[in-house]
Write a structure and sequence with these properties.
Blueprint: E1 5-8, E2 13-16, E3 20-21, H1 34-46, E4 51-53, H2 62-70, E5 79-84, E6 86-89, E7 92-98, H3 102-116, E8 121-126, H4 135-147, E9 151-157, H5 161-170, E10 173-179, H6 191-198, E11 201-205, H7 237-246, H8 248-257, H9 261-271, H10 285-292, H11 301-310, H12 323-326
Parallel strand pairs: 3-4, 4-5, 5-8, 8-9, 9-10, 10-11
Antiparallel strand pairs: 1-2, 6-7
Helix pairs in contact: 1-2, 1-10, 2-3, 4-5, 5-6, 8-9
Length: 331
């Protein structure tokens, strides 16, 4: 079992068809386990997964350092994506303040390079659009970093159509990262058509619907303090019950395919276009292996259609973030 390769954008970035979201190795989803996390990162390489997603703010700072340790003697076999754009002071995130001033971008990149123990970042995303800084200034700054060899490719995260177009006009955008899955379809009407028109790849995070598409989730109150799922609106009260019911079709098709529900969700994404590279997150080898195996799951046209119509935009109950985080999304 070895993953195939896909192109993100038209600038030459090529990555494994499924990547690995690394945030949960350091925060949000239970206690960290560095030994298992590093074993998972190494197992990913063995399985042909070479695309790893992190960010300055994950930890903060500690997730990049984890990848730096894990990949110290494997750097040339991996593609590392990281992000800048949230304010971090004295090792702590300052609320949801955004900062993309050119000097702050350059400082963030220097910090990321040091923590990642590398001389270049393969894919650098602006984590969230900063309304105080013109996107043209952001793109220009990243373009300068590309010329300097510190960054290879430029990406945006949770950006809207206008900012995608304006950024791409200054420096080519190779990938846009955003939440997209059977569960969350908000990109289909406007963002995805623009990405395809401009030749930009899509990197869906939370492709398993924050766990709902795996069928293995609990209500918010059943998670410990500090676990993000305690404050996720979709895990709370009547939202939870409605969302588990909505995801039943995935479990039904999985039973027919003799696959895991999460594998069906990933297979649907992979079959939506060769320009889509999902990055399911996990810190355990068991779930990594299940996710990678999703590339071998083939859905017939009737099953794709059934999934398409089962959870259209507006089906899922509850916002995908609390209000304070929703306010940072450029749509």
């Amino acid at each position: 079992m070895s993953l195939s390769r896909r192109k993100l954008g038209s600038q030459g970035l090529e990555v494994s068809a499924i990547g690995l979201g690394c945030m949960g190795m350091s925060q949000s989803y239970g206690p960290a386990d560095e030994t298992e996390s590093i074993a998972t990162l190494h197992r990913a390489i063995e399985l042909g997964c070479n695309f790893f997603d992190t960010a300055e703010v994950y930890g903060p700072l500690t997730n990049e350092a984890l990848l730096g340790r894990a990949f110290r003697d494997r750097r040339d076999t991996v593609i590392i994506a990281t992000k800048f754009g949230f304010r971090v002071k004295d090792g702590k995130q300052v609320g949801f303040e955004r900062t993309s001033r050119p000097d702050d971008i350059r400082a963030a990149v220097e910090g990321s390079l040091k923590r990642l123990a590398t001389d270049r970042i393969d894919l650098l995303y602006q984590h969230r659009v900063d309304p105080a800084v013109p996107i043209e200034d952001v793109a220009g700054t990243v373009g300068d970093l590309v010329k300097q060899g510190k960054v290879r490719f430029f990406g945006l995260s949770e950006a809207g159509v206008s900012n995608i177009r304006r950024a791409h006009g200054v420096h080519p955008v190779s990938a846009v990262q955003s939440e997209y899955s059977l569960w969350e379809r908000n990109l289909e009407q406007d963002v995805i058509p623009v990405l395809r028109n401009l030749g930009i790849g899509l990197v869906p995070f939370s492709p398993l619907g924050r766990g709902f598409l795996t069928g293995e989730v609990k209500k918010s109150e059943d998670y410990p303090e500090g676990d993000y799922r305690r404050i996720d609106p979709r895990y709370q009260g009547v939202n939870f019950d409605a969302n588990m019911k909505a995801a039943q079709v995935v479990r039904d098709i999985a039973a027919i395919k003799r696959a895991k529900p999460g594998q069906v969700a990933l297979a649907w994404l992979l079959q939506k276009g060769a320009d889509i590279v999902p990055i399911p997150g996990t810190k355990r080898r068991k779930y990594l292996e299940e996710n990678v195996a999703a590339e071998a799951v083939r859905l017939v046209a009737e099953q794709m259609t059934l999934l398409d119509v089962a959870m259209p935009a507006g089906t899922i109950s509850g916002n995908r973030y609390p209000d304070s985080i929703m306010a940072t999304i450029d749509r």
